[in-house]
Amino acid sequence: MEAQNNSTEIGDRQPSDLPNPGEKDNSVETSDHVPLPSSQQNADARHPLTTEPFEDILKVLADIERDDPNLAFPAARLVGLYRRLWESCVSKHVDCQRLERENLLLEEAGAHLRTKRDGLQLRHDKQLARLRFFERALASFRERLTSILDDWNYPFQTQSGRALG
């Protein structure tokens, strides 16, 4: 039932209600110009590459607007679209350069950390080797000390466990 209501509403429209493709709609012209966020405006201020290539074209467009206003609007719209595309490419290029710099810094930091890790691992391995050496030396010392104390406490005992005498 709702589909029938929608179709009758569309059919009931007067031709004056429908948009005329030959008419210029000012809302279309203003919708093409979207203000940039402040961060992108700052980026444009920092990177003249975004506007420099279009300075000559904008001068030519101003001349065309004086000579033939009907041609100026489509030409300006086309230039605006290309300018947006160019700005997008420039911003991507700037982002890629920033990412490459950050990546290089991270690679350098990673190399430094790997070097530091390898040095710490080597130090750890040396300390473990030293610890094992001291454990063996301590075990050997205990055996010798035990043997000396046994000889001192039981001087007349033979190795078979019987006392001499």
3D architecture notes:
The protein has helices at residues 2-11, 26-32, 38-46, 55-67, 69-153. 75% of the residues lie in helices and 0% in strands. The protein is rod-shaped. α4 runs antiparallel to α5 (69-153). It is built from five helices and no strands. The protein has a domain at 37-122. The model is unreliable at 5-37 (pLDDT under 50). The chain is mostly helical.
Helix and strand pattern: HHHHH
Structural class: mainly alpha
- Shape verdict: rod-shaped
The average pLDDT value, as a whole number, equals 76
Number of strands: 0
Tally the helices: what do you get?
5
Strand content: under 5%
Radius of gyration: 44 Å
Terminal-residue CA separation = 127 Å
Major sheet size, sense and barrel closure: none
Which parts are unreliable, with pLDDT below 50 for 5 consecutive residues or more?
A: 5-37
Relative helix content: over 70%
Biased composition (Basic and acidic residues): 22-32
Region (Disordered): 1-48
